[in-house]
């Protein structure tokens, strides 16, 4: 592996891409520590720490703590992710939009529409955050002082906050596209990846402190480390796992040349939806807490929050069902068996033993439905695993399953691109004898 890392810097083009990516990551991390004018970062951080069980806590996880620090990048690239997912869903509903996504020129138009919609979403998110923070009462700092979240109230503060946060999202969207174009990996995914790594050093430090204080025994620590290693290995396996459907193309004679006559396969991923089902499920399961944070606690919301506390049977059951449902829902959006079958029929390809056309589409859909179930169950287990460990071992398990999945998926994508550059220039890959595949 060390030889493979050394080979990276022997290729000038790859070396420039990696250095450019690292430079953009540094810019992003610096921006997450620049506070938004008019907001009190320390007070906002205390408020967000109290709201970890709401959508705000989930959002702060994906932006690397930038929201809790009230930074200029507090919104992160999540408006862009939301806009992209929305256009994917709309593409399955409106045929004209779906047709645009099928050619290069159309995809450029859809990307432009996504950018416009990102700006609109960022503007709306910023309005919500500005109004919400302005309406919150002062909070008590650790030293006993009670301070407000905003330096002043009124129209000027709202405008300043809205335009600062919206501009921060636009800037991050530009950085993400620059990384994709001139760097290595998918820029937007890489920024979320860096954000997910933000809490790991803090969580490791807290765990070490608990071990030193005797709150966590060495036996429990060994069990936790074993679970982390096993979980990472299982995630890599599930991310790479595919079901290969064999496809045969007949021979065709054109002029003096013979084309076709080859066997290939269609790779169907066990986890086609990635981490999206967990994000959707978390957003829905956190609605009661978010409503209570916005409109105040009532007997109904407090009772619902009590029933939907992590680790309770109702929470675990609903959470798992939501994940499985969204795994099938999102897979049906991003993968269309009918399009695959039509393209195969047009090229003369067929699955051995299956008639081309409708029968092939039904066969692919049946196989995809079957392999999606174990993938969805795996996602549910990963999402619920931290709470099971807390309940079973009696320790605070700080490493969430959602963070795991994002880190593993983006890391595999990036390593796969680096390996492609190495192999294209006749160098060995990063791992000898191992062929890595990205998620796409």
Provide structural commentary.
- The chain has a domain at 1-199: SecY subunit domain (Preprotein translocase SecY subunit), CATH 1.10.3370.10.
- The protein is 67% helix and 6% strand.
- The protein has 440 residues and is mostly helical.
- The protein is built from 18 helices and 6 strands.
- The protein has helices spanning 2-8, 12-31, 41-50, 55-62, 78-93, 95-100, 104-134, 155-182, 187-197, 200-213, 218-240, 276-285, 287-295, 299-307, 313-334, 337-346, 358-393, 401-424, and strands spanning 139-140, 146-147, 242-248, 251-254, 257-260, 263-269.
- The longest helix is centred in the C-terminal third of the chain and has 36 residues, at 358-393.
- The two termini are 24 Å apart.
- The model has no long low-confidence stretch (mean pLDDT 81).
- Strand 1 and strand 2 (146-147) form a beta hairpin.
- The chain is globular.
- The strands form 3 sheets. It has a two-stranded antiparallel ribbon with strand order 1-2.
Key terms for this structure?
mainly alpha, 6 strands, single chain, Preprotein translocase SecY subunit
């Amino acid at each position: 592996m060390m030889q493979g890392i050394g080979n990276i810097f022997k290729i000038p083009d790859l070396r420039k891409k990696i250095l450019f990516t690292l430079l953009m990551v540094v810019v992003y991390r610096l921006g997450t520590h620049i506070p938004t004018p008019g907001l009190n970062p320390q007070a906002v951080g205390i408020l967000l720490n109290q709201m970890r069980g709401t959508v705000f806590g989930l959002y702060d996880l994906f932006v690397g703590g930038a929201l809790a620090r009230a930074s200029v990048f507090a919104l992160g690239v999540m408006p862009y992710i939301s806009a992209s997912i929305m256009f994917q869903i709309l593409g399955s509903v409106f045929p004209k939009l779906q047709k645009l996504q099928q050619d290069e020129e159309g995809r450029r138009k859809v990307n432009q529409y996504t950018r416009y919609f990102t700006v609109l979403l960022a503007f709306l998110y910023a309005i919500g955050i500005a109004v919400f923070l302005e309406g919150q009462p002062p909070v008590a700092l650790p030293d006993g002082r009670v301070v407000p979240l905003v330096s002043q109230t009124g129209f000027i503060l709202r405008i300043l906050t809205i335009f600062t946060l919206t501009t921060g999202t636009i800037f991050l969207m530009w950085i993400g596209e620059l990384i994709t174009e001139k760097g290595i990996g998918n820029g937007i995914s890489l920024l979320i990846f860096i954000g997910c790594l933000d809490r790991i050093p803090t969580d490791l430090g807290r765990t070490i402190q608990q071990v030193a204080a005797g709150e966590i025994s060495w036996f429990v620590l060994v069990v936790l480390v074993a679970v982390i290693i096993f979980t990472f290995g299982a995630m890599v396996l599930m991310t790479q796992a595919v079901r290969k459907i064999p496809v045969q193309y007949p021979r065709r004679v054109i002029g003096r040349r013979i084309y076709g006559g080859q066997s290939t396969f269609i790779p169907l991923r066990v986890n086609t939806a990635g981490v999206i089902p967990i994000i959707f499920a978390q957003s829905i399961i956190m609605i009661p807490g978010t409503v209570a944070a916005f409109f105040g606690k009532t007997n109904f919301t407090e009772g619902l929050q009590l029933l939907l506390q992590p680790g309770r049977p109702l929470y675990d059951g609903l959470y798992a069902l939501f994940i499985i449902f969204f795994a099938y829902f999102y897979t049906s959006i991003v993968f269309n068996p009918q399009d695959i079958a039509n393209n195969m029929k047009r090229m003369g390809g067929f699955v051995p033993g299956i008639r081309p056309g409708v029968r092939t589409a039904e066969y692919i859909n049946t196989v995809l439905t079957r392999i999606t179930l174990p993938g969805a169950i795996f996602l549910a287990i990963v999402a619920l695993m931290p709470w099971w460990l807390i309940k079973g071992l009696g320790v605070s398990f700080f490493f969430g399953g959602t963070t795991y999945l994002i880190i593993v998926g983006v890391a595999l994508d990036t390593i796969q691109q680096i390996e492609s550059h190495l192999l294209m220039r006749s160098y060995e890959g990063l791992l000898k004898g191992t062929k890595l595949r990205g998620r796409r």
